[in-house]
Write a structure and sequence with these properties.
The protein contains six helices and three strands. By secondary structure, it is mostly helical. Helix 1 packs across helix 2 and helix 3 runs antiparallel to helix 6.
Amino acid sequence: MIVIFLLFILCIILIEKSTIAALMVCALIIILLIYQNKTVIPQLSVKESFLMGKYILEYVLILCINIVASNIHVAKIVLSPRVNIHPKMVAFKTQLKWDISKAVLANSITLTPGTLTVEVFEDTLMIHCLDEKFIDGLGELSFDKILLKIEGVYHGSNG
């Protein structure tokens, strides 16, 4: 049930105008997605569903905070009279097991201004950073930790 709710909230965020017709289309798309993927969507207990929802909301909040903070940092670089950047490529190791988790992590890093995930290979992400200061932030990423918690909730329900 929490999956339906989260998909509906995501759909509402993505639509331009919240009209009755748009909300009905969102609901129809969600129903079709769930019906088509019923074997893929995890069957979680109520406690696991709330835990999963908590981690997903925490993830989205931290992602938004990181995007805003990175935007400010990139704006300072762009608006500075001198271009003082030191681009670097960094190999970032992750403990994530699922390909989907790695893809979410890679896309979240790319969404954060000043960083770009260039390649994902096994447990390593190659990340281009606009400035060396962004490298320090990669080590403190909460994205990886939260995605590990999400994997743990799902694994706990199936294993």
